[in-house]
Amino acid sequence: EVQLVESGGGLVQPGGSLRLSCVASGFTFSHDAMNWVRQAPGKGLEWVSVISSGSLYTSYADSVKGRFAIYRDNAKNTLYLQMNNLKPEDTAVYYCARGPKGSSNPRGQGTQVTVSS
Protein backbone atom coordinates (compact mmCIF):
# COMPACT_ATOMS: atom_id res chain seq x y z
CA GLU A 1 0.00 0.00 0.00
CA VAL A 2 1.35 3.39 -1.01
CA GLN A 3 1.75 5.73 1.94
CA LEU A 4 2.86 9.35 1.79
CA VAL A 5 3.16 11.31 5.01
CA GLU A 6 3.79 15.05 4.84
CA SER A 7 5.05 17.21 7.68
CA GLY A 8 6.72 20.53 8.36
CA GLY A 9 3.88 22.93 7.82
CA GLY A 10 2.95 25.71 10.19
CA LEU A 11 2.31 29.40 10.64
CA VAL A 12 4.98 31.73 9.28
CA GLN A 13 5.21 35.45 8.63
CA PRO A 14 5.51 36.82 5.11
CA GLY A 15 9.12 36.57 3.98
CA GLY A 16 9.75 33.57 6.19
CA SER A 17 10.81 30.04 5.33
CA LEU A 18 9.61 26.50 5.90
CA ARG A 19 10.83 23.09 4.86
CA LEU A 20 8.25 20.43 4.11
CA SER A 21 9.01 16.72 4.20
CA CYS A 22 7.22 13.72 2.74
CA VAL A 23 8.13 10.20 3.84
CA ALA A 24 7.13 7.53 1.34
CA SER A 25 6.54 3.82 1.77
CA GLY A 26 4.84 0.95 -0.02
CA PHE A 27 6.64 1.44 -3.34
CA THR A 28 10.16 1.81 -4.69
CA PHE A 29 10.60 5.51 -4.03
CA SER A 30 13.83 5.81 -6.00
CA HIS A 31 12.08 4.67 -9.19
CA ASP A 32 9.41 7.36 -9.33
CA ALA A 33 9.15 11.06 -10.01
CA MET A 34 7.51 12.97 -7.18
CA ASN A 35 5.44 16.14 -7.05
CA TRP A 36 4.29 18.74 -4.62
CA VAL A 37 0.78 20.07 -5.12
CA ARG A 38 -1.23 22.47 -2.98
CA GLN A 39 -4.80 23.48 -2.34
CA ALA A 40 -5.63 26.95 -1.10
CA PRO A 41 -8.88 27.56 0.80
CA GLY A 42 -11.84 27.40 -1.56
CA LYS A 43 -9.69 26.59 -4.59
CA GLY A 44 -8.72 23.53 -6.59
CA LEU A 45 -5.47 21.64 -6.55
CA GLU A 46 -2.47 23.53 -7.92
CA TRP A 47 0.65 21.76 -9.08
CA VAL A 48 3.78 23.26 -7.47
CA SER A 49 6.85 21.26 -8.43
CA VAL A 50 8.22 17.95 -9.69
CA ILE A 51 11.51 16.12 -9.34
CA SER A 52 12.66 13.13 -11.37
CA SER A 53 13.59 9.85 -9.76
CA GLY A 54 17.31 10.59 -9.80
CA SER A 55 16.99 14.33 -9.13
CA LEU A 56 18.37 15.27 -12.53
CA TYR A 57 15.21 17.12 -13.54
CA THR A 58 13.13 19.61 -11.58
CA SER A 59 10.36 21.95 -12.62
CA TYR A 60 8.34 24.62 -10.84
CA ALA A 61 5.12 26.51 -11.26
CA ASP A 62 5.73 30.13 -12.22
CA SER A 63 4.14 31.24 -8.95
CA VAL A 64 6.93 29.65 -6.87
CA LYS A 65 9.91 29.71 -9.23
CA GLY A 66 12.98 31.22 -7.58
CA ARG A 67 11.50 30.87 -4.08
CA PHE A 68 10.90 27.13 -3.66
CA ALA A 69 13.33 24.24 -4.11
CA ILE A 70 12.39 20.58 -4.40
CA TYR A 71 14.85 17.83 -3.54
CA ARG A 72 14.87 14.25 -2.39
CA ASP A 73 16.90 11.72 -0.45
CA ASN A 74 16.29 8.32 -1.99
CA ALA A 75 18.22 6.59 0.79
CA LYS A 76 15.66 7.94 3.27
CA ASN A 77 12.60 7.63 1.00
CA THR A 78 11.98 11.29 1.66
CA LEU A 79 10.93 14.21 -0.52
CA TYR A 80 11.45 17.81 0.53
CA LEU A 81 10.23 21.27 -0.39
CA GLN A 82 12.26 24.22 0.82
CA MET A 83 10.05 27.31 0.73
CA ASN A 84 11.65 30.73 1.07
CA ASN A 85 10.29 34.26 0.89
CA LEU A 86 6.81 32.97 1.61
CA LYS A 87 3.82 35.08 0.62
CA PRO A 88 0.23 35.09 1.93
CA GLU A 89 -0.86 33.56 -1.38
CA ASP A 90 1.25 30.50 -0.56
CA THR A 91 -1.23 29.65 2.20
CA ALA A 92 -2.56 26.18 1.39
CA VAL A 93 -2.53 22.54 2.31
CA TYR A 94 0.55 21.01 0.69
CA TYR A 95 0.59 17.43 -0.54
CA CYS A 96 3.24 15.21 -2.02
CA ALA A 97 2.16 12.98 -4.88
CA ARG A 98 3.77 10.11 -6.73
CA GLY A 99 4.07 10.13 -10.48
CA PRO A 100 5.13 12.19 -13.49
CA LYS A 101 4.82 15.96 -13.70
CA GLY A 102 1.38 17.14 -12.72
CA SER A 103 0.35 14.01 -10.82
CA SER A 104 -1.85 14.55 -7.80
CA ASN A 105 -2.74 10.95 -6.97
CA PRO A 106 -1.84 9.11 -4.94
CA ARG A 107 -1.05 11.80 -2.40
CA GLY A 108 -0.75 12.05 1.36
CA GLN A 109 -2.98 13.69 3.93
CA GLY A 110 -1.28 17.04 3.54
CA THR A 111 0.35 19.61 5.78
CA GLN A 112 -1.07 23.08 6.38
CA VAL A 113 1.04 26.12 5.55
CA THR A 114 -0.28 29.48 6.68
CA VAL A 115 1.53 32.69 5.79
CA SER A 116 0.25 35.60 7.79
CA SER A 117 1.45 38.48 9.90
Explain this structure.
This protein has 117 residues and is an all-beta fold. The protein contains no helices and 10 strands. A hairpin with a 5-residue loop joins strand 4 and strand 5. The chain is globular, with a radius of gyration of 13 Å. The N and C termini lie far apart (40 Å).
| Mean pLDDT over all positions | 96
Structural class: mainly beta
* Total beta strands: 10
Beta content: over 45%
Low-confidence spans: none
Strands of the biggest beta sheet: in what spatial order? 2-10-9-4-5-6
Query: How far do the termini sit from each other?
Result: 40 Å
CA-based shape: globular
- Number of contiguous helices: 0
Biggest sheet details: 6 strands, mixed
CA radius of gyration: 13 Å
Helix content: under 10%
H/E element order: EEEEEEEEEE
Which terms would index this structure?
single chain, 117 residues, mainly beta, six-stranded mixed beta sheet
Layout of strands and helices, then pairs:
Layout: E1 3-7, E2 10-12, E3 18-25, E4 34-39, E5 45-51, E6 58-60, E7 68-73, E8 78-83, E9 92-98, E10 111-115
Parallel strand pairs: 2-10
Antiparallel strand pairs: 1-3, 3-8, 4-5, 4-9, 5-6, 7-8, 9-10
